[in-house]
Structure to design on (164 residues):
């Protein structure tokens, strides 16, 4: 069963939860073959009921000690633009659509999403463009996000500090 996992991390992002569960967006997901929608809603005021989205199997929860299994089971992850969430999903090798919260002040999340998009690691949108993005997205353009190489960095530091 093709699954979409949505995460807002530890924050509150009710606009994303509202947007992903609206009938037009659910229809866009169905048109792409997704049949299961798992929502991690964090501290938000919304916790949609299982029967609130006809035509998809909906599961929602606030927090778990780890969302790694939810990410691993997902065919697509839709996330807020928090650095931790983005890096966890990209590190798991899953296609990622980031929804930027355009109501945040000093929005560093947009900068992160924009850069990772320019590097072809993810797609991004806002709540107002989510449905259209789901209708038109091409996940085939995404490139793997290669993990860092701390040994190379350590060697660089050693050399720069004259330790080697």
């Amino acid at each position: 069963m093709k699954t979409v996992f949505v995460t807002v991390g530890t924050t509150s992002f009710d606009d994303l939860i509202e947007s992903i569960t609206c009938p037009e967006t659910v229809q866009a997901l169905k048109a792409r073959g997704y049949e299961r929608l798992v929502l991690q809603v964090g501290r938000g005021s919304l916790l949609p009921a299982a029967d609130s989205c006809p035509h998809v199997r909906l599961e929602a929860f606030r927090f778990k000690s780890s969302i790694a299994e939810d990410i691993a089971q997902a065919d697509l992850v839709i996330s807020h633009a928090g650095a931790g969430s983005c890096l966890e999903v990209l590190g798991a090798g899953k296609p990622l659509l980031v929804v930027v919260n355009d109501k945040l002040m000093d929005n560093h999340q947009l900068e992160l999403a924009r850069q990772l998009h320019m590097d072809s690691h993810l797609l991004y949108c806002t709540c107002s463009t989510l449905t259209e993005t789901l209708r038109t997205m091409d996940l085939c353009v995404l490139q793997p996000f290669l993990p860092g190489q701390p040994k190379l960095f350590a060697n660089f530091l050693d050399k720069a500090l004259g330790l080697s």
Summary: Helices lie at 14-21, 23-31, 68-73, 83-91, 108-118, 130-136, 150-160.
